Fold each of these.
Amino acid sequence: MPTFETRPGLHLNYELDDFTDPWDVRPFVVLQHGNGRSSRFWYRWVPYLARHYRILRPDMRGLGKSQGTLDLERDFTLDYLLADLHAVLDHAGASTVHFCGESMGGILGLAFAARYPERIRTLTLVSTPVFIEQRMKDRYSLGHGSRTDAMEKLGIREWVSATTRTTRLPADQEPDLFEWYVDEFAKGSPEVQVAMSKLVNRANAQEFLPKIDSPVLGLYPTGGQITSGEQEQLLREGLSNFEVVHLPTGYHMVQLLFPEACTDALLEFCRRYDREPMTEC
């Protein structure tokens, strides 16, 4: 779990999972978590992937083990998150990567692929919206004016429990997973969670789509509530090389509900485009 300082008072953390053969230098796969989560939320994917690729799981600033002195009004922008990701790749020695981001992590991947195309081999989007539609902003407000108002009035744990039950995970299918998700999410600083949610609410990846040359895979629920059919159509129209695999659920967290199916699709996709010499990683 390497941690390094990017500026005085800010330390970034990433997890490195590598069970590849030591004589075979394999490419990196970045698993970037979404809003309010951390690298720990990828735990179900690591056993499937780390035998084949070197897995980097960064914590976004202020979340997980990436901690420091942060200005809540100024330090949570897309530009800063992209700079952090660039710093993580440099620190890990990853000149090119297969990038996989879930939800907000996928928006970050779209922006990174548009700005730094030379660093991206492939891009995979897991339940990634192009932007948060107004109907979802209204649902996440839980009758308290706005999403962030609800988070502040109810507290993070009560808010995430209520919204996860209806959109992210079925509470009765794996009750232990549901409770773990809520508990783990609620470990984050409430102030950081609100600041990140403000960023998510205003994020829009549509401008990046025409600038992306990398092949893109989408792993999406069949009846996504956060990722609607209209959102998927924007990706089909805006990306030059895009394909979708649908998972049979209406819930958002397909990577936790279908880890084997998701990783099978990701491995097949990455291998298809691994045409560069393995030493050029």
Note: Residues 262 and 270 are 12 Å apart (CA to CA).
Amino acid sequence: FEGGEKVIEFENNWANYFNVRNAIAVNSGTSALHISLASTGIEPGDEVIVTPYSFSATASSIVMNNAIPVFCDIDPITFNIDVNKIERLITNKTKAIIPVHLYGYPAEIVKIMDIAKKYNLNVIEDTCQSPGTKVNNQFVGTFGNLGTFSTVETKNISTGEGGIIITDNDELALKCKLLRNHGEAYMNDKPRSYLTNMLGYNFRPTEFQAVLGIEQLKKLDKLNEIRNKLANFLIDNLSDCPELTPPQGHNDKNIIHHLLCFQYNESITNVPKSKYMEALKCEGVELSNGYPRPLYMNKMFLEKIAFGNNGYPWICSENGEKIKYFEGLCPVAEKVCKQAIVFSQIRYPNTLKDMEDIVTAIKKVNNSIEKLI
């Protein structure tokens, strides 16, 4: 129930680093989101407000709990949930908000917590891309009822696969421990009773993951420092490329970069983004489009086919049956999806020399842009 010796050590170290009472290790960031929501008592047909611009698990974890995602558009500068649009989406079925601190940039978590307090909502912070980012000298992930992290291979530190939940609420922590272990209650110094009091899962981490996590956590500050150094070099040295708009506020030392997302302005070059990216790839620069579409534009949401073909869990409430997902629902998110160009090289073992090569390649393409028109 408590985990192996190394799992407990890893949890204690994580809790100490983030200055919280409880850390619960699980087998993935998706599992962390799933059982964090479940621990709050979410019920079928309840609604959770969430960003459409994130990895699929941010929203699918809501559906896993038989609840309904309500997508709130994003801020065009931070790409995080737009706090000015949250309250209009709150209904009598709203039970929680999941803000994502995307690419290392913090959502407006203080304002989100004010809204949550006003309407008595739970907040589960998706901090999978922002371990170490701070707001008002406080780590993101520590503001909400629960904070979730991932340690999959693409994240700031990695255990191969894994996730962590943090909370100062002892009751929620206990529920998360039950949920990760089949919902099975366990009494110290008593034989195993196989007593199950709730629906639970096998989301336990391994000792092997924990051993890696213990050592990786020691390196987090240094690896974050490298990410910021490389990201800021790219931003500073591409400042004379008007077709590439960097994320705003990048010089804030409290922000820890995870990925570096520029917005590409096609009207400046008269070259489609796909053609521009292809030219850069020919120069050896690895790029991605980031999230290709808002989450609600995936078939699962458009056709409401999460569980079978009858609209479950949306049919669990009258509100849910009325909720529709469609193109144009979150126009800012849709625009960002079309314009985003994402650099993932801002991490160890890459160096400033690698960043110089990227800058050289971009400026070479820009100097020959007429050949692409």
Note: The chain has twelve helices and twelve strands.
